[in-house]
Amino acid sequence: MAHQGQGPAGDRVELLMQVEGMTCAGCVEAVTRAIRRLDPEAAVAVDLGQGRVSVTTDAQAIDVAQVLQRAGYEARAMTG
């Protein structure tokens, strides 16, 4: 189940992000690097075909979306 990063500080949660603009393996690397700059311990799984990124992190969903947007991708947290 995906969470929205609302747990107490320091809790690792799984975030599911919809990311627009990823088209190739280079995009996968760029997305992974951007997230790991925010949280070096993050577990990142990219589904290029679906345009989804799963992140296990202690960062907030809004922060992950912002780093992805700064990297050039449209990103938003998915619910459910």
Automatic annotation (TrEMBL):
Annotated InterPro entries: Heavy-metal-associated_CS (IPR017969), HMA_dom (IPR006121), HMA_dom_sf (IPR036163)
GO molecular function annotation: metal ion binding
SUPFAM superfamilies in UniProt: HMA, heavy metal-associated domain (SSF55008)
Keyword annotations: Metal-binding
Domain HMA: 13-76
Domain of life: Bacteria
UniProt KW Metal-binding keyword: yes
Protein name: Heavy metal transport/detoxification protein
